[in-house]
Amino acid sequence: MSGVHLNRKLVLEAPVRIADGAGGHSETWQVQGTLWAQIKAGTGRESAGQFLTVSSVPYKIIVRAAPDGAPSRPKPEQRFREGNRVFRILAVSEFDAAAHYLTCHAREEVSA
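Structure (tokenized):
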């Protein structure tokens, strides 16, 4: 499909709960695979909290489609990582009518 340039290598991660032995749990991230993607930034915004300022930018991340149930198919609540940058996946939809690509609606949040 013309217009899609998969030129960014992203790591797809899923949350995993690990029991802490005292009745609680901690959360860690497990790698699901590496995907090539195109990243398009939206309009950012900034909000002030009590002790810090949070800047938030929405992104559309386009990746090749994978079959339903495949570990490499992105899902909401998962995230993409590119070095120190983290993109939390909010929703996933088909990019094209032939379902060759997926659009992952994501948000990068950075504390300052």
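DSSP finds no helices and seven strands in the chain. The mean pLDDT is 88.
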